């Protein structure tokens, strides 16, 4: 019996710690990542669509209407909710901010946030002004459009790597 006691205690601790509140925060963490990076993906896809000849599709015009890309900014909830999860994970499966996979995830998030704030969203605002102002000329603004598309692609790669790290917890 003594050899099974630590295993039983571990299972009980895991079931207690992973209660409804933990699962809700975990779901919010995952949804924030999916929505935020989904918005980043849409930005890149619509930037590519701006390169096609002919009139700009109405969905692209709507997307590039002036204003803050709040869906993309949901990315800022990801580390906040991640740290809440770390705090809630006390017990048998205690995760720590010093765990390697947590540090890698945080570094990837910082890289994504910096690329978003320094390249993607400012360039997106430039596209918004051009599209909304009717001054869009796909060939004249090719570099701006491509910068949005390539930054979006790079951020999607970061998202996939971060997702693998978060799930695998190497």
Give a nutshell description of this structure.
74% of the residues lie in helices and 0% in strands.
Provide structural commentary.
With 170 residues, this protein is mainly α. The chain has one domain. It is built from seven helices and no strands. The chain is elongated and about 55 Å long. The two termini are 32 Å apart. 22% of the residues are buried. Mean pLDDT is 83; it is low at 7-17.
Q: How would you characterize the largest beta sheet?
A: none
Alpha-beta classification = mainly alpha
Number of strands: 0
- The tally of helices reads 7
Distance between the termini: 32 Å
Using the alpha-carbon principal axes, give the shape.
Answer: elongated
What string gives the helices and strands in order?
HHHHHHH
Radius of gyration based on Cα positions: 21 Å
**Strand proportion:** under 5%
What count of domains describes the coordinates? 1
Low-confidence stretches: 7-17
Helix content: over 70%
Average of pLDDT:
83
Keyword list:
single chain, 0% strand, mainly alpha, 7 helices
Give the helices and strands, then pairings.
Elements: H1 5-17, H2 20-49, H3 58-63, H4 70-73, H5 77-88, H6 100-132, H7 142-168
Helix pairs in contact: 2-5, 2-7, 6-7
